[in-house]
Amino acid sequence: MQVLAADAPSGSGELLIMNDLPVYKRGRNKIQEAIEEAEQKKRKNEIKNRISAAKSRARSQEHTRFLEEKVEQLRNENALLKKLLSLKVAAAERLPEEREVMQREKGKTVFRTGRTAHIGAAIYGD
Predict the structure, then answer these.
(1) Model pTM score
(2) CA distance 97 to 84
(3) Which side of the chain, N or C, has fewer Cβ within a 10 Å radius?
(4) CA torsion 62→68→69→73, rounded to 10°?
(5) Backbone angles phi, psi at 18, to 5 degrees
(6) Nearest to 13 by CA among 25, 4, 31
(7) Taking the C-alpha atoms of 88, 91, 96 and 97 in order, what is their torsion angle to the nearest 10 degrees?
(8) What is the distance between the alpha carbons of residues 3 and 18, in angstroms, rounded to a whole number?
(9) Would strands 21-24 and 15-18 be described as parallel, antiparallel, or unpaired?
(10) Distance from CA of residue 75 to its chain's centroid?
């Protein structure tokens, strides 16, 4: 609906309706400027939001890459620790056998000399 100034009632601040927006005759330029300014501000905010979203996605991707590298590092460390543990367990399983062998060998040398046998008995309870 459009009302022209000639059709509008006379008086101060004649009202014009253009494109369903009320526009006062005296302030038409100011209102149009305000509308343009609001649209420009909206476009500026949209651009800022796009930039911010792009930065956020980049940070997220960088963090994901960091975490993936950390996972790989921890998996490698875990594999190494498992290997070391299995070696230690295998060594611990051999200890009783090695201890027996050492005690038998010590027992042979302990009994060869009298004085050493006495010290060996006191220390090892033989």
Answers:
(1) 0.46
(2) 21
(3) N
(4) 160
(5) -125, 125
(6) 25
(7) 170
(8) 7
(9) antiparallel
(10) 17
